[in-house]
Every structure is written in C-alpha cells, then in structure tokens.
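Data deposition worksheet. Section B asks for the primary sequence of the deposited chain exactly as it was used as input, without tags or linkers unless they were present during the calculation. Section C holds the resulting structure in token form. Section D is free text for depositor observations; keep each observation to a single sentence. Incomplete worksheets are returned to the depositor.
Section A, Depositor: J.P.
Section B:
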Amino acid sequence: MANSYSIGNVFGIPIRVHVTLLIFLPLFAFSFMPAGGPQGLFYGALGAVGLFASVALHEIGHSLVARAKGSRILEILLLPIGGMARLNALPRRPIDEIQTALAGPAVSLALGIAGLFFAPLLFSFNPLLAVVIHELGRINIMLVLFNLIPSFPMDGGRVFRAALVPRLGRLPATQLAAKVGRGFAWLFGIWAIWPVFHGGTIRFTLLLIAYFIYQAAGAEARQAEWEALAELQRGQPSGLFDDLLRKWR
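Section C:
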C-alpha cells in the first residue's frame, strides 16, 4: 500500500506501518510516560511500541486462523487507529468467519491477562516498567471489549454477520450488519464530540474510528453486491447471486 513501510515478516506475513502512525507515535509515547525526564520518555516510547506490537499480534491472530481456513494473507497494516489484516478473500463458511473474527480478541485477551498478572510481580524490580506493562494489559482488555461490539466490520460485527448468514443469506446478512455498523459509527461519533458541549475537547481518535467504521461498513456491503454480479457474469450464480435477485425483486 502507498505511504506505508515494511518493518518485517511474522510467520511469513508482511507487516507494514502507515506513515501517519510514524507521525503520531511520539504522541502515543508521551501518553504512556510514567514519569518525567529521559527515563520516563524511554518507558513512554516502550509503551507506545508495546501498544502497536499488541495490535500487530491481534491481527496476526486473525491472519493465522484465516490462513488455516484457506485465505491468503496479503499484509498487515498498522495505522494510528489500529491494525488491518488484508486478505485475498474472507473465509466463506460462517463458522470459519466466526473463528477468524474471534482469534484477534482471543490474542488481546491473553496479552491483557498476562500484563495485569506480571505487572505487580515486576513492581519491586522496576516500578516504571511495571506501570507500562499494567497499562498495556489494561488497554488490551479494553480492546477486547471494544472489538466485540457488534459494529460491522469490527470483530463483533463480523461474528454478527456470520451468525445471520445461515438464516438470511450472505448478501442480506452483510447489508443488515453494515446498517448496524453505521448506526454504531454514528453513536461513536456523537460520543466523540459530546465533551465539547460540556467544555471539553473532541475525542479525535474515537472520531476517526467512527469515520472508518462508517466508510468500511458501506464498502463491505458494496463488495458483497459486486461479488454477486461477478458470479452472474461468470455464469456461475450461487447463493450470493440468489440473495441479490431477492433484493431487486
């Protein structure tokens, strides 16, 4: 992808960092600083790197399960608002999609529990490191809870869509999940700007997440329709094509 840089491969999966993350990384480092001075800055930088390493591991969890289900992983892209695993195609069976979606939060949960468990043990040896590890553990737990919100195309939204497929078919399930996802995006957007009405400041990160979810949900719905039309052009109509016919009737 343009404006991104490779930082290596993990399990044969290319990991890339978008240039905007490199710009915002110092801000994340300052937010992690457990103390002032050069030492605090060092641990702040360590916390920022640990945060995006956690995001990368979350996406690797998705990727390894998706690859086991037959998908090819193109890359993992790290952004200021999180990460994104790019696949050639998502697993088609609902159970496979559910397992792929839940793999990422499972990794984050393990990281969160590990951080909260080991932080107290480290405190007597290195208090500043313990504070950073505890904060990373807490953030990973929060990421689990946030990602499981049924807001398509977040992880919880993908589980929601996959659960609807057996009853509705893939296209109607995607369209319904996209509508719910856009509804959550509006709620996130309102939550992001709400502090302004009480003398606070906009939560810019949450506002960016809301925008991303809104745009991505619509893109996923359009992709499902394009796939149905492509099947028609190939003369190989499937259940997805039948879903599209039902929509137009």
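Section D:
The beta strands are 4-10, 13-18, 73-79, 82-87.
The chain is about 70% helix and 10% strand.
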